[in-house]
Amino acid sequence: MHSERAPLALKIAAFAGLAFLHLPIVLIFVYAFTTEDRSYQWPPPGLTLKWFGVTWNRPDVWASLGLSLKVASVSTVIAIVLGTLCAAAVSRAKFFGRESISLLVILPIALPGIITGISLRSAFNLGDIPFSTLTIVLGHATFCIVVVYNNAVARFRRLSGSLVEASADLGANSFQTFRHVILPNISTALLAGGMLAFALSFDEVIVTTFTAGQQQTLPIWMLEELVRPRQRPVTNVVAMVVVLVTFLPILGAYYLTRGGTETAGVGK
């Protein structure tokens, strides 16, 4: 089937849009190799791998990276459990206020981050909860749940109810039905949602600013370094790590969900 070629103006506009989005990221990568450590001079006066070694030997970088990985991992686990349960309740059962509850679940990610951060900080102060890693995790879980919920509820709605009924008719209990029927159908959606939740949590700044105590996640560390720089290229090396750590889960989630329109067992 013959397809028309896109007009030249459209190609130029598309290229300009991609360049606008990605050239700043390319600059971050280039400045990670610069020999200049006090300013962002263009073009860089020289290229070096020195800053990768410097970054490797900075204990503050490792501490921040470890905290970010810990927070993102725990937040993702909480989001997968609670997001899946919410999605199952909303999609598989009918009850009064179901749509309102669905709206309340997705509201945290729709609100500006500063509103969520202020609300959480006020709640922690009222509950006399000291700011710590726990408060950061709870703050991140509020929007991570939404990502998992959106993926899971879409997959639950495509899951044929007759499969669950057939499983019960064949003598399977609730756990067996979940393990052998429901989980295989929603597993890729949960994995994709978990990957996106991890990526969102890992590079989150605004909510973290309001819910952290003396701890510094990697994005907060980067912000502090930009305000009071010690070695500017180190910040760019760390930025490269953040880009890779967040890009890979998003890429994986894309490949997991792009072919997930079929539901196992339907039409058989």
Automatic annotation (TrEMBL):
InterPro entries: Bact_Polyamine_Transport, MetI-like, MetI-like_sf. The keyword Mitochondrion does not apply. It is a multi-pass membrane protein. Keywords: Cell membrane, Membrane, Transmembrane, Transmembrane helix, Transport. The chain crosses the membrane at residues 12-33, 71-91, 103-123, 129-149, 237-256. It comes from the Bacteria. It is found in: Cell membrane. Residues 65-253 form the ABC transmembrane type-1 domain. SUPFAM superfamilies: MetI-like. The keyword Chloroplast does not apply. It holds the Pfam family BPD_transp_1. Belongs to the binding-protein-dependent transport system permease family. CysTW subfamily. This is ABC transporter permease. The lineage of its organism: Bacteria, Pseudomonadati, Pseudomonadota, Alphaproteobacteria, Rhodobacterales.
